[in-house]
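Homework-ish question, so no full write-ups if that breaks the rules, but can someone show me the predicted structure for this set?
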Amino acid sequence: MSPRLVIDHLSVALPRGADRALALNDISLTIAPNEILCLVGESGSGKSTAGRAIMRLLPPSVRISAGAITLDGADILALSDADMRAVRGARIGMIFQEPMTALNPLRTIGDQIGEVFEVHTTLGKAERQARVLDLLAEVLIPDPQAAARAYPHQLSGGQRQRAMIAMALALEPTVLIADEPTTALDVTTQAQILKLIRDLQHRHGTAVLFITHDFGVVAEIADRVAVMQSGQIVEQGPASDILNQPTHPYTQSLIAAVPSLHPTSRAVVAGPVALAAEGLGKTYGRKGWFGSGRVTHAVRDVSFTLHRGSTLAIVGESGSGKSTLARCLVRLIDADRGSIQLDGQDILPLSRRDWQRHSRKIQMVFQDPFGSLNPRRRVGDLVAQGQVLRGTPRPAALEKARELFARVGLDPEAISRFPHEFSGGQRQRIGLARALAVNPEILIADEPVSALDVSVQAQVLTLLHDLQQELGLTVLFITHDLRVATQIADQVLVMHNGAVVEAGACAEVLNRPQHPYTRSLVQAIPGRHWTPPVLSAGAG
Amino acid sequence: MPVLRRYCRNPSAMLGLVILLAVVVLALSADQLFPRNPLALAGRPLQWPFASPRFWLGTDTQGRDIAAQLFHGARISLLIGVVATSIAIALGILVGAVAGYYGGVVDEVLMRLTDAFQILPNFLLLLLLIAVFGSRLETVVIAIGVVSWPAPARLTRAEVLSLRHREFVEAGRLAGLRDLRLIFGEILPNALPPVIVYASVVMATAILLESALAFLNLSDPNVPSWGNLVGQGRAVLRSEWYVCALPGIAILLTVLGVSLTGQGLNDALNPRLDEQ
Amino acid sequence: MLLLRFALQRLVISIPSLLLILIGVFILLQFAPGDTVDALLAQIGGGDSTLAEQLRQFYGLDAPVTVQLGRYLWRLAQFDLGYSAIYGKPVAEVILERLPVTLLLMVSSLLVAVVGGVLLGIIAARKVNRWQDTTISTLALLFYATPSFWLGVMAVVLFSIHLDWLPAGGLEDIGGGLHGWQRAVDIARHMILPTLTLGLIFLSVYVRIMRAAMLEVATLDFVRTARAKGVSENRIVTRHILRNALLPLVTLIGLHAGTMLGGSVIVESVFTLPGLGRLAYDAVMQRDLNTLLGIVFISALLVIVVNFMVDLLYARLDPRIRAKGH
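A: Not a homework solution, just the prediction itself:
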């Protein structure tokens, strides 16, 4: 069977002043009918550019400098603008990453899906509306009538993405380009969307180019895989080959960085209790002016014990309350009910001044590498701040900052630089240094690696592990990713809608989940049947 | 600094800066070039510009040198612009930062206050203040400042609101920073750039407001304001229209300079991706 | 209906602000160097202190301030704006005579500013950085920097004095005895220059906002999605960009309601139109505090009403606002 889409020695040039000359450097790939090709790479690899180049939707300053793209034998790059517009949406469909911003907030879903028919066909209004409803039913949106009349903000993230898929597949295109469509979704929603894409693809025989950075997703749905690094394709082939016997060193390092789902055997830690929470609750309530009150239970009756030296992972999706819980523990938010015992002392009723004395013992590392450091302060000052406020003279605090920098793997002289001069992974190291500066006993890490590339993620996790061993820290690790939790934690707490639904040792919870929600969470892990191979030679 | 370089590459921004500097030069050189009191009788009234070598830009209805008034008027305009803007921005930042940071009842009350100042037409309020407190220059300047604070307040509040929940603020709180230091040390330095740029808009409005007051004979008559000149010239509009035209051009150019500079600053601080 | 409920909520929130204004202005006027009776006595050529005291009693000016304030607020709630000592008529009557002219001026200026601003803004955005954009943007900047009174005065010089195309001032030719359609045309001729003077300043602001908004919205994600569907550029502008770009403009109209009313003071002065703005100026000069208070009240009400309509319009355009409800 002849391939649907052929990219032949394509190069895309960036404008002068960019960090490299070519966004895409001589890449070639083909997609056969009825197959899913996954294009994998980290940020900056050029994978999104490839997708946009096929649609000829590159920004004005970026141009295709060499090569050819053919769709069913016809040269796409030679088409006029009008002809290309006829191709977009009708013969090539595309779905994007952020469903909230990818839909026009001021127009209804039905309107926007119907627009595809308006632009490419001569169907009448009634006919269009009927087709829209059929499409919405096919993508399994509950109550298609209501959804068609709804605006994007009235639907959930998963439903919006289904609507986008309906829009892209409306005219049964030959090729579907999916640019990280599930990255912004919860794990359970992601599983549903991946299944939907695969089912639709089988039914219509569409050739799919699926762009992603997540090897779990690749393992879940790919037929063939192409790996990109710095604008070049370093390896491509059938999925089973690439996933289990990667040959290129870069692919090998990427796969080595994927956290495995088999918990490493860890010694049971049974030391004294470092932190104990009992019946914690936090409620947000609003009395509207005209009687519309909305009450949210962000945290509901949460209890756990944390032994000194152990690592507890708190796993949950967005809205589960895990971040609120973390902030309650360090009194950034004041819980409404319950108690928090820190070294035997209940810290909730403490006054601000008393808390100031105790807060040294429990510190936090934040999620957003770009938002957690004040852009206008030097990083050395940021690290030293906690100590200075607790009485340490400034020169001593800065000296400690230098030591910490060395320990987290940064140049000690870099303390005089500003945050924007560091990469994402480096900023998280600075965040770690800041948290460790006051010698805490307990470290709360709120999704510290979620915003990082997979390879950098592995480095930071290793660093965290080493520091924990060295300093005897107790770690509370918050994440939405069960893989990461399994790799680093002894015990895990699963949260859903503000309450703890299951707790126990990682291996137990992962292999024998009791609660239905935990089961659905475990089943939703993409590629959980694939075990990343342990590679010896050349692995990063 | 990249900001400075971007600014210098922007032609309209440089034009604005040049105009502004020219006005400053005018103001500074007023005493050297026109040492006598500009509001004193100098010659025959209503002489046309370029008609007499002594009065390049002619004389007004009371025989006063127009050029002298223009030069000395530059001082007044700049003074009013800077002082009134400082008052407005200082008040605005204070109210906006407190409202944005504390939220809740404090925010509601301060916002109702801001609304009150915005619902009442600012020129009417200006008239009221002048009516009650008089037309001395100090009063006029303070009144303009008092009338102009709501917009900077809203802008500051919006910025503070968006920064309040950022993680670096939480980190600061965790380190032990108290509210006041958080607001002034962590949040405001990041919130202020758009407000500072907005100061140029406030300054332009302040100059326009004062000249409008002067036109209506409600500003300080003992001061060589450009607006005063325009107001005088109304009486002789049919024949000696230059008495109105010249000071108006001066006002226009000054406001233009201020606006272009502000816009240039804004563009330099927020470069857009398409400027490659 | 959700739309109405949202706008009503915002209306209710304005009431405390209105009260703040009224109380604040009332207290402010207590600091004024002279009161209504002083001005009245000055008008009738002086009088002795007994007369002054009798007058004060008559007008209720001898009561303590809080009592006066209470009485004043109570009367306002009944729309009783008091008596103008200067004009010898109830304040409400004086204001009602002048209100239509100001409303006419404001409505026509707003129309010119909005319609012109939106159209020119769209053109400037579509032809960004080309000569159309440069011309429009430069002119907009120039008009923005021009003092409104100077623009009005120069317009009179050019169009009335030198070219004699349009009248120099006033609302209509008195003594012309025109009725019906002819009268309307005459008024329209007189209103052209004032409308343009007031409208052009705001037009220049709206052009720049519209242009910036259109350029900003064009970079948003959903525009990229529309392109990926194969939608043509023209359709993208009309069906996707335009409505989204209008939102900041609509907000601005509400914020400018008060400024426009203030601008009418100047324009009515330059063109000697018998409107509220001129009335305010006269009231200040003659210390007619009752009238001044009445004008403040009516102006505030006017601004609140305009904001209410703007809120309705905004909620109509943006479905997200109706859901948030605050």
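Now go work out the reasoning yourself. Hint: The longest strand of chain A covers residues 273-286.
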